[in-house]
Protein 1
Amino acid sequence: MENLTVKVNGVEVSVPAGSTVLEAAHIAGVEIPTLCYMKEINEIGACRICITEVNEGRGFRLVAACVYPCSNNMEILTSSPKVIESRKRTLELILSTHDRKCLSCVRSGNCELQKLCKDYGIEDASVYDGATNKYEIDDSAAHMYRDNNKCILCRRCVAVCSKTQGIGVIGANERGFKTFIGSAFDMGLGETSCVSCGQCIAVCPVGAISEKDYTKDVLAAIADPAKTVLVQTAPAVRAGLGECFGLPIGTNVEGKMAAALRRLGFDKVFDTDFGADLTIMEEANEFIERVKNGGVLPMITSCSPGWVKFCEHYFPDMTENLSSCKSPQQMFGATAKTYYAEKMGIDPKDIVMVSIMPCTAKKFEIGRDDQSAAGVPDVDYALTTRELGRMIERAGINFNALPDEKFDDPLGISTGAGVIFGATGGVMEAALRTAIHTLTGETVTDLPEVRGTAGIKEACYKVGDMDVKVAVVSGLANAREVLEKVQKGEADYHFIEIMACPGGCVNGGGQPQQPASVRNFVDIRAERAKVLYDLDKSMPLRQSHENPAIKAVYEEFFGEPGSHKAHEVLHTTYVKRSVN
Amino acid sequence: MNSAKSTVPFKGTPEQEAKLIAVIEEKKGDKGALMPILQKAQEIYGYLPIEVQTIISDKTGIPLEKIYGVVTFYAQFSLYPKGEYTISVCLGTACYVKGSGDIYNKLQEKLGIAGGECTADGKFSLDACRCIGACGLAPVLTVNEDVYGRLTVDDVDKILAKYA
């Protein structure tokens, strides 16, 4: 590609043609702050915090670095007095209507606005104080709060909801000073067709949107001697939790996480990976049955509760295509409260099942109908990775100094197939490993065609004498595109994996927030996914059907995949919902 | 949360709906079709309640929130119908300095609605307007075609009673 020469603060650098001023500065080793801008998500140049001086031969002037393209021989000044003055003014104006409750704010310490105010030495936050708007907190959704008193109107949440996810249940209402982010006719988010994916929370620069926090309830359960409190951790959590403690993105903290959970007082520390292996047994079996018996195809995975809710709202005619399998979280909870409770002689009513998830839609999922195999909810509390991070911090546990510990038996035993569930393509790969083995006896452990962060991947595998056409999709706008093709008869897949969040669970709405300064230049999806694929590679067992704990649970309890008992405990039903 | 759904029952007719759908079908493919569709819809119904916006959303595939965002952005669109009696209070300079702001506030309080809205029984709607050229009578308000001038806040009850 053609290169341009630009001068950043007097230093000459060569940058690819088409680079923005922001990107050129990054190449020169200088970071320009952004609040509204987040690469590939929101590129509207509206907030003016990235204001930078450039000279294209007609003297210096202020431009928005995030969207302004470089020209050859451009001179760029990233922190001249004029630039600093402009950015300070912008911050002071934002603060004039911002609810400055930093002391108790959930984002204190990793708030992008707070960091900038510190960096730019905003000493008097009240300099432009005047009229303010007061907003009620919206707590109508199962998974999150919106506190518009802290909103800075950057519109990242609006962009990720409408563009990345193709949903658009939030947007800017009214105009000028009265502008606020909300839903149509000021409905609470819980009344809309929001799918609970939480991508809005993941991109919010401040504390205006956050998950509903259940850490107090979990600590109360742990303190109750009458309760047996079990915890399960989703695959992607081990690839993200370290970021809460300053570790580099893409650090595997599986062992420290198990150690921390034990120190928090959970009675047993189990692994959702076991639930993932169980899901594969049921799902691979369901797929083979559908193919053999002329069932509804393509079969679509049902692990991602955000995707399932999306399907129910936006493609209600395709709920038959969804696998009837519960998600790994729910299969795990159901198995813990039936098989494990029976084995240990515990009344399922006395078990409190806590899950740690990279996901906010899991909070919605635990309250769904037909998710109570033992007559009590399969899972009682679904916490996000961030909530676990806060619990560990509050307990004063020095996370980085913890030893690596193992999960407890038997529901902590898993295979490499289970751990890759956390990345887009992982469920497909795991299911194919077992389906291929079941049908042909062959052992296949690497299917690179379905890996990687691309939003839509296609592949065709020869399984026995059948060509199995598969698609792997992440991000709901991509899902819409693929499903519309299927509906029009333009695609003839047999099996589709869909994850609501771009890149899969590693980039879930419950994962630690990374600021735009990181996300603009690092693909957090790829970095975190690498942890899971490395783990898979390092494991002695990489196919779900080889898991000894899985073999035992079928021998002792379920019989075989797809049995009557398995259906009662591990499968579920869906509903048709409307669009609001 | 305070819902901005109009409390006046929706009285759209099948004829109005057919007209609206014809407009949508005609403009749907155009770039920037939403604004002209909304303008026509307001012409047909007089206002843009949730029922009308939902028809537009269903037929165009544009999310309801996006439509609502546009409707609340532009002053030309109304979420509320006009009442049997439309009260307009002049907030032009002469009337304003003579205290029409207080009269406007009193009407909002008495009717239990904000400016731009309509009472639940469909009887009164309230708007602020700019100079109506009767500055000699300031402060002035109109109820449909009737003009009331040289008002004080205490006159509000008497005027409303006339139309009750």
Note: Chain A is about 35% helix and 15% strand.
Protein 2
Amino acid sequence: MAKVKSLAELKAMREKLQSNLDLREKSNDPDSLVQIKVAMATCGIAAGAKQVMEHMMEKADELKLGIVFTQTGCMGYCHAEPTIEVKCPGKDPIVFGHVDNNRADEILTKYVMNNEMVEGVIPVNYETI
Amino acid sequence: MHVLCCGGTGCYASAGAEIIKNFETILAEKGLQDEVQVVRTGCFGFCEKGPIVKIMPDNTFYTQVKPEDVEKIVNEHIIKGRKVTDLLYMDPENKEHVADSKHMGFYRKQLRIALRNCGFINPENIDECISRGGYEALGKCLSEMTPQQVIDEVTKSGLRGRGGAGFPTGVKWGLCAKNKCDEMYVICNADEGDPGAFMDRSIMEGDPHSIVEAMAICGYAIGATHGLVYIRAEYPLAIHRLQVAIAQAREYGLLGKDILGSGFDFDIELRYGAGAFVCGEETALIHSMEGKRGEPTFKPPFPAVAGYKMKPSNVNNVETFANIPIIITKGADWFASIGSEKSKGTKVFALAGQINNVGLIEVPMGTTLRDIIYEIGGGIKGGRKFKAVQTGGPSGGCLTEKHLDTAIDYESLSAAGSMMGSGGMVVMDETSCMVAIAKFYLEFTCEESCGKCTPCRVGNKRMLEILTKITEGNGTMDDLQELRNLAAVIKDTALCGLGQTSPNPVLSTLDNFWDEYVEHVVDKKCRAGVCKKLMSYEIDKEACIGCGKCAKNCPTEAISKTDYIAPGHKLPSMVIDTTKCIKCGACISGCKFNAISVK
Amino acid sequence: MINVTIDNKQIQVEEGTTILKAARKAGIHIPTLCYFELAGMKFENKPGGCRVCVVEVEGRRNLAPACATDCMEGMVVHTHTNRVINARRTVVELILSDHPADCLVCPKSGQCELQSLAQYLGIREIPFKGEQSHYRQDMSPSIIRDVDKCVMCRRCENMCNNIQTVGALSAINRGFSAVVAPAFEQDLVDSPCVMCGQCVQVCPVGALSEVDDTRRVMAAINNPKKTVIVQTAPATRVALGEEFGMPAGTIVTGQMAAALRRLGFDYVFDTDFAADLTIMEEGTELLGRISKFMAGDKSVRLPILTSCCPGWVNFFEHNFPDMLDVPSTAKSPQQMFGAIAKSYWAEKMGINREDLVVVSIMPCLAKKYECKREEFSVNGNPDVDYVLSTRELARLIKQFNLNLKDMPSEDYDNPLGESTGAAVIFGATGGVIEAATRTAYEVFTGKKLDKVDFTELRGMEGIRDAWVDFNGTPIHIGIAHGLANARALLEKVREGKEQFHAIEVMACPGGCVGGAGQPYHHGNSEIIKKRTEAIYREDLGKPIRKSHENLSIQKLYQEYLGEPCGHKSHELLHTHYFDKSKHVEISE
């Protein structure tokens, strides 16, 4: 990676990165990818997030689902760790709490594959800038 | 279509279960069970207006739903697509019904500024950070602003130190910039030591680039080229993510020589702390970084004059830094429009204790304790009664019911006898003993005192001994007097902030829960049933059937048979020898006949 | 200048003046405990830890420590309000609540600053009952650590690390358990401690004290089989009087000798005799090295470093193990005396070595260790058996109901009691090298000195240097007192930044007059200056002021030793040094 040499270059870079992201997120194309973010701060990891993420990745492979998994920081729901955010193409992201292996399977087979809601949704109750 | 019913303890206990049942029944009757799915969710955190029902995907938010309202919702909303207006949330200000939850004022109760990227970006990927505007503030400073303008902007924003004392950040930067010399330091205090507070860790783990960027901005503003992060070694993940972020920023030329072609050089090193609470005090932190004993020295001289290696240094904590980039990009006026008169912006709190939604929250300054506890926090666990909330960690105090409507900011919290601290917030209900709570915090302070000054080294120890005496039933009214005197002297004479604030938990509980202290001292009673030595276990000889299970469970053989056989029973009842009893509670948990009680 | 108001008094002080100093200037007493200043020696201890000196500053939320708070323009200070007095009292009560109340048997009783403070505040009972700190007792040959009594004033730590750069003592543990101790709470003997004892000199309480050898000495005196002789170091004669209410700088040489006889010593000799002997040996060694060097032998190690100070010897053995061949090999005067007493004199008197007990009266605590070094004994019998500090001697004299003031002035016994003015100035910084210069000059040039006093070598500056003209050969002399100064000077030499022919080092600030075994000066550096002046007065009053003119010394060489640095001298009067550097292994 070459060094960013000016503010203008940085801004151009941001736009490019953003449009790539938007393309992926806003697309209604059913083939486009589902994104799952796993809250992996220390507390999430301690509650089992890492293991759940590994399990979900295996399961997604098994079900031949095209899912992009990413780690992210603390979502703030300490009472419901591990938490994950699932973003299906064209839909609002949904946060699930208390995700163990069983619930992870359920989320994949029911929500991701069939748009069926499963227990454990955590309503997002904040505004962000 | 989905119907989301709040499954938080509050809603679920009141009518939630019935509402879900009604939805399922009615939808089945109408043959809609396949199209519409009913799901129980976590707490919406809006318990005051519960039970809550939310219809997806159009985000319609119904409040105070009763089981009998379900039919109407199904008929009107689900079948006919018309919103049930009288169940919609009514904005208390303009008296208008709000359908879409995203427009509800409630959602403004939490505003994430410092935590803006936490949970959104992959913290180990600088591109995600840049795509959300990361490093643009640094770019703006370097190419469009003079260092003085940066300091002015931060000053104008009204941002104050989030580490606890609330010193205006811009002023601090300005003081440091005045002592310009060729070796200056920007220090990030990441030694988060308050028990229960973990916002700094979360920020570093979730958005490390904001710290890197803010430190570079600070370096530019005060004229420093070295950044140091003093981070506790117990935070391995935060350390790892900061290291990754620093490496990526270097790779992109956002750290190092000639950043963004501006000629400004800045780089950051990590320094590890062993996790001493007192090293959160800036002079102690600096001594620790220098390889000396981590203990505070008297200020002045302030670090802005003689800090790390006796060079001018600016120390800010993680959360303070996390606010900087956004202040630069969105402007001081925007930031200053949030919060209360003297405390601008938001504050992150670690909400813990006997509360439903334990978690990390971020609210604008000036939010009331009531909003935090009952709306965001989802109220007290098990529907029990609120008793107190402890803010500010071991340096803070306990606030009561009468403070619930206090708009919290630096000033109001100190006026109420507590403090902002780094943002720990522990909610307590009637099962908490306030004397024991004061003792708990003092134990922490005694453990973490550096031992340099007499009041903190010996005074806190003596206060703890008096409190222990009281919780063990040996306290006198004179002890309470002595506690007050000692607390006042420690507050007045201790060397550093840790020592000066250490009596706060004792003072605030003495002020707010005097009766409880007196009960411990005079009546030898602990109403919360926490202080073991003040409790006695007793067997009701009429209720006891003499099965002897309690005697078997008792680890100290304190329970034996009596000669008395209660009417209707065949075996003699049991009795507890209180001199042998260690109050472990094993007898109670084994008794099926509720014959044993604690007094 | 800035204006402050303290207790309604308008005071003008220079910027950077603390409230404490401003108040003192105005005659306002603010009690202190941890604060300690040795003016002129660059030693000021003001950690602001004890909080005894707190005062009320208008406009400030909390009380401020007067010792660590600088005056600001317009500042209004109240030093004795109810709030201040209550806080001060409570703070002292708290300190007392964690302090053993064994004043009856405490070595510091009567000199203890905490005791005086409690009396000043009229504390009659300690309201706080609770746990007291307990630590392992520790004793080196010189120093006893009874840190249950430590009040965390940090004076010793500051002294040990900043003035002496020894680094043996530092605060360890936290909170209530915090205490000053060697790292990892190891014993002093396993630490880099050089036993200079300056920590003892500054300790306000009885946490650090000297090892007391008075009972062992009295037992020897009371043993009819033993002949017990005593030597008195130069600096003791200008300080002992203080313990008997005499002004600092009173010379009590004759009274001390008389008192020692009354205590039962069989012979009273003088370390000054051995100091003259040291000059003969060390001076000869110096001239030997210089002559060789000037003849072109580049393997000669210069500068020569003096080796009479045992704290200094320990210090370079710990810190400069690469330079062990640089110091003079001459033993210290104390050890030369012991060696001569137990050979030459014992033979002369027909006393068996085993039946002869040599006691030294020293201003020093490191001497207690020095006499126990293995190389200073013959078949397990030490050349010097016991060392008493000036303070211990004063205690003994008092115990025998003797008052130094009433003592007649008596002479030392001979031959080991004869000495010159050159010997007496060993007691002050610069004195050893001046004494050496007096002799070296005359031996080197073969000329008589016109002026015996080399005032350019005197003074209180921590590091000094001077060029002395040896009849056309310029000789560069360095002087350091206080081990930080010694370290700085020696590092310069090691790095080749400065060249010297000879360097004198004394571990204690001021030299032996400021030694750790001397009466407590409680931070009053005037006392040290007065003692120094007395040393030079004593020198002036001596009929002979050059070591090589000491007749007993000349006789000793004729009768016994042969020539300086000769075979016999080497055997009896020279030593060698050991690498004692401490490597702390920290296991992962």
Note: DSSP finds four helices and six strands in chain A.
